Amino acid sequence: MGALYGQFIRSGDLVFDIGAHVGDRIRAFRRLGARVVAVEPQPALHRALRTLFGRDEAVTLVPSAVGRTAGTATMLINVDNPTISTLSTDFIAASRGSAGWEGQAWARSLEVPVTTLDALIAEHGVPSFIKLDIEGFEAEALAGLSQRVAALSFEVTTIQRAVGLAAIERCAVLGYTRFAAALGESQDLDAWRAAAEIAAWLTTLPHAANSGDIYARCE
After folding, report:
1. Range of the domain at 145
2. What's the rounded Cα separation, in Å, for the pair 199 and 166?
3. Is there a smaller number of Cβ atoms within 10 Å at the N or the C end of the chain?
């Protein structure tokens, strides 16, 4: 992770971790010397983050989801696999009957606050890097960003390619010109390419690839 994120982050930089889950990326960002705003709406995961990072003055924990507009929303909780809890009913619908997603269930729901990337920037400052991993809600979060930051990443899945394509389109509107991808939990980026090329890559990605992250920057 250090080698991957070190391409975008320098000591002293501000990073937004949107969908912080239990903080594995926070640790990587802190090892690089970054200050981190970690956003996670699930109370149980937020408690874990407070235990792990609550005494670190360089980590700000925000108990919220991120979307297009501020307010509240219903979060659907996967009790057995909380890292794929989501605000997107389309994400859950897309998972049904899909290979690799058997047995997943979102049995609980709760109301959570929602903020926007613009609001986070107004409160905490402009980050050098934004990481988005919010289970089918990435394009919605990017719709709440009106200014380009130096670089960002967002998760894509083969069950919801349209969300990834919408996120690529939003990044292009914001002025990002180069994109690269890392599949699964790989920490290796493939070649940098234009928006149309990364969109074609996502469209033809085999279903079995399941998920990955797309990185966007400007040249």
Report:
1. 2-202+210-217
2. 9
3. C
